[in-house]
Amino acid sequence: MNVVPLTGVAQLSPPSRPGLISPSFGVDRDGVARLQRERARLRRRNILISLVVLAIVTLVAAASAGGIMIAVHVFVDILLVAYVGALAQRQRRVLERHAKVTDIATARTAADPYRGHPRSPAQEAAVSFIATARGRH
């Protein structure tokens, strides 16, 4: 049995993707997420503008040249409609997520409106009485 030494083998790593930012220790994660969302929004806008311009160009070409350009224009129109549909579906998912997910601080405040506010001694006594009474059962 032949044994091959692995000392000369280098571990391969995937190439870095310039569109993604990997947050490291001490980096503002909210700022990184905001930057990535902004880049994605600009990318979606650029794709939409490109498809609209391409649809206009192929419409002019189909009107002047005819023939195969009509089929190209129909194909570009189908791409444009499908992309707008995908954008609308994404927007519905985002709105649904915002409707379902609540901020933890908001939920805590709704559950306990006095959280973070100084309580009077009478309120503190009432809360501790209720808490101990619940523990007795």
Write up what this structure looks like.
- With 137 residues, the chain is mainly alpha-helical.
- The chain has a domain at 31-107.
- The chain contains four helices and no strands.
- The protein has helices at 29-65, 68-100, 104-111, 121-135.
What's this entry about, in short?
The protein is built from four helices and no strands. By secondary structure, it is an all-alpha fold. The chain has a domain of 77 residues.
Count of individual helical segments: 4
| Quantity of strands, as a count | 0
- Form type: flat
In the predicted model, the low-confidence regions spanning at least 5 consecutive residues are none
SSE arrangement:
Blueprint (H helix, E strand, L loop, with lengths): L28 H37 L2 H33 L3 H8 L9 H15 L2
Helix pairs in contact: 1-2
